[in-house]
Design a protein that fits this description.
Elements (H helix, E strand, L loop, with lengths): L10 H8 L1 E2 L4 E2 L2 H18 L3 E4 L2 E4 L11 H10 L4 E2 H6 L2 H14 L3 E8 L2 E8 L2 H16 L9 H12 L10 H4 L1 H8 L3 H22 L1
Antiparallel strand pairs: 1-2, 3-4, 4-5, 6-7
Helix pairs in contact: 1-2, 1-7, 2-3, 2-5, 2-7, 2-10, 6-7, 7-9, 7-10
């Protein structure tokens, strides 16, 4: 049986660490990383019963226990609880840059990443480097096994299962090779079941953003 992603780790932290392209020592899919992080925070809230799906919209229930003030999980729940039910996709797209900053600062405080800031031609540039690359490598291996492996989905550790589903939905670089999404379609669908409305909304948000970018560049 799979062990947890990392003892005491959150899905948002794991999603951030998984997003590193270790060959280039930088974040991949950075323009959409905020979508993935907010989706991960909402997945945590949905799984613990602090959110529910109401006809394709997110609705807040009980306030999450143990969510530190200022954490992405707490921020997302406060936003949703203070609003009428809105679509998951709308919440995934909200304040994405802030989501990246919040999780970045938490990981930097835990000394899991290093944030390097400098200027190029007077323009501020930020580079984020993993301090413990083996954590990102281990996560990538577990996500890969979750998608391609033979272990029944129902026997998998839940966090790994959900992380794999969200990583695929976000089309994270390096998670799937060419043609693998089609090959493992049924498996991916099974992985997504616990957070299906969020995974679907995340996939559509990423697709819409990329399509918008393609249209703008045409």
């Amino acid at each position: 049986m799979e062990t947890p992603v990392k003892q005491g780790e959150t899905l948002t932290h794991s999603a951030f660490l998984l997003a590193f392209d270790l060959r280039k020592e930088r974040l991949a899919n950075r323009s959409e990383l905020g979508y993935l992080l907010r989706a991960a925070a909402m997945a945590e809230l949905l799984l613990e019963g602090s959110l529910t799906d109401e006809s394709g919209k997110a609705r807040a229930l009980a306030k999450p226990a143990g969510a530190g003030a200022g954490s992405l999980r707490a921020v997302v729940w406060e936003q949703i609880s203070g609003s009428p039910p809105r679509t998951w996709r709308r919440w995934i797209r909200k304040d994405c840059a802030k989501a990246v900053r919040v999780v970045r600062d938490e990981l930097a405080a835990d000394r899991l990443i290093r944030v390097e800031r400098h200027r190029v031609l007077f323009i501020p540039v930020e580079r984020i480097v993993p301090r413990k690359a083996y954590l990102s490598r281990r996560l990538a291996e577990r996500v890969g096994r979750a998608i391609r492996g033979g272990q029944p989905v129902g026997r998998m550790e839940r966090d790994v299962r959900v992380l794999a589903a969200l990583a695929v939905a976000a089309d994270m670089k390096g998670v799937l090779g060419r043609g693998e999404a089609r090959r493992y379609r049924n498996r991916i669908g099974q992985l997504s079941v616990p957070v299906e409305p969020i995974a679907t909304a995340l996939r559509k948000a990423v697709e819409a953003t990329r399509q918008s970018g393609a249209d703008g560049g045409g």
